[in-house]
Fold these 2 entries.
Entry 1:
Amino acid sequence: MSSNISFEQLGLSTDLLRAISEQGYTNPTPIQQQAIPIILKGFDVMGGAQTGTGKTAGFTLPMLQKLESHANSSTSPAKHPTRALILVPTRELAMQVYESVRTYGKYVALKSAVIYGGVNIDVQIAAIRSGIEILVATPGRLLDHLQQKNLILSKIEILILDEADRMLDMGFLPDIKQIIQMLPDQRQNLMFSATFSEEIKKLAGKILKNPILIEVAKQNSVSDLISHIVYYVESKGKQEFLIDMIKKKNLQQVLIFTRTKQGADHLAQKLNSRDILSSVIHGDRNQLQRTQALDNFKCGLIRILVATDVAARGLDIEELTHVINFELPNNPEDYVHRIGRTGRAGAKGFAISFVSREEAVLLGDIEKLLGIKIQVEESNLGLKNQQTEFPNKTKIIEEQKKSRAFSFKNESLSKRSKRIEKMEDPLFSQPYISKHSDLISIQVGIDKSKKQIIHKQYPSKTLPALFIPPVTSKQK
Ligand code: AMP
């Protein structure tokens, strides 16, 4: 994904070049090659790029360079007005983008902060009030701060909407509109989206001024580095099939997607009971649990991370080789995002899908969206290959399309946004309150000898996520 063009040739400052070289990047990726010079020149940009292409650095580096003239080490908040706003859909993405801002801006005296819902707001207020030039935020929590007048956005010079399609999917459009009204008219706008729906084009038309279109991947396309594989498996056989596959293929780091939070919990429990260390990441997990699960997964303490679609976007896990769709997503575009967690930064990846009889129509939708026919693998894992039980996939698809049981394609927009609202992660805008019990279970360590995750129970209802006692690695 890199080329012979150097970062120096893109006109980046020495402070930024130093930070880039510390990251070990030798050459800019295609999106960086295209986006950086255009953004430096001050144009608005509509970027079509999937995650894993290096798009974060593609907008963060030129943003930092454009703001570099304001860099100062004064302790006065007045000397650090908010000049760049990066809106992202999820807290995980917010944290990742914020990390990138800090990494690439290591040698630039600009202050930055990240705000998202589900955590205590006071700590964020303190950070904002100390003065910050760059703010990474999820829309719901940013609006809370704006309504409380914790910050003003009248000095914004650059607005960046990252994963704009996801923000719309999650029902953030009204919030985004409100936020934009509080920005000065004179500003540079950058919008990135992995997919280009009509809604995205409409939003772009409202926000961007004479944008330059940058596209590094075909619309709705996925990385060539990813091999797509389908196994036909009946729903009730999926768990055993998965366990067999993990053991026989000795898979060490796998991100698995389920359709529901309950399904994710259930699967992780099952895997743990069979000595395959697993954790879950979904909307009912508080921020600490989610961060911890991701960290443990990234550093290899756990082999399996079971996630729902809310976790699908923006996760950046180095060298993730396998994504397994334990269940296919209802929305084919989510397939693109799920499997975008692998095949990143030039590495090869496998996107494996377990497809039951009921899901055949969803597979058809995915193949149509990607314009490819996904390879069906014979099972050599000791389980009976289920493919023979699907003699007439076309017929199933036809029947299901008629009943509309599994496809939402003909759904009206209002109905769709209502459905998506229901799927929205409550933690973006709400404080964490467990729906399930008065106690939440936090992972506090790993007992390697017993291959067990050690959990501790904390009361949940009275405690916002941020005040959960610090996690220790020692067993209590
Ligand atoms: P992104 O698409 O922004 O999520 O980036 C995906 C991954 O690519 C991240 O792990 C980055 O650290 C990495 N990356 C970004 N730019 C480069 C580059 N020029 N060379 C190598 N890796 C990069």
Entry 2:
Amino acid sequence: MKIFIDTADLAEIKEAMSLGILDGVTTNPSLVAKTGKPFEACIKDILQVVPGDVSVEVVGTDHATMVAEGKKYAAWGDNVVVKVPIIQEGLKAIKSLSQEGIKVNVTLCFSPLQALLAAKAGASYISPFVGRLDDIGSDGMDLIQQVVDIYGNYGYDTEVLVASIRNPMHVVNAALMGADVCTIPFKVIGQLLKHPLTDKGLAAFLADWEKANKG
Ligand code: E4P
């Protein structure tokens, strides 16, 4: 399973990269706004340090604007993936950009039918938002299982990118379901590694080593 970080914060990206397990980055307009940097500079800074896929979201809501934005972003780097919302005009843009060989990450997916249409339009990634579904009393991970099953039934190449991750159990379940990618906030990446028995065991080993080698 690939691991992406869900942030536009360069310091977080660099720290996650230093762990040696990072395959890519996803951004969105809200995450870029949080950095306080101008959009283009923020994305270009990320592209300078990340060799893997970097998702960059369009803000247009009509086909022509989305395609124009997508082409502009794609020219910034070979690893740019254009993020397009799954609305009617977005569906047309997914098709147009994919046909031009530009990778598309379809965002704001909340239903299996949206995922089916995105795959048919040629998306490289589908991003179902699990946390936001959990927030309204749905089970976000049920959607992941549905999308994995539907794509498996028809052999679609579109990769299932689990988004809006809030906790480590989202990642465990995504891996058990065979999702292709998890995009994870920096804080949750840190939580993936932690186990109290690891810390307790290491403290005991080091204390015993000290005792045995004293003097
Ligand atoms: C995915 O690509 C989105 O940027 C992101 O996962 C949304 O997460 P949120 O629901 O925590 O804002």
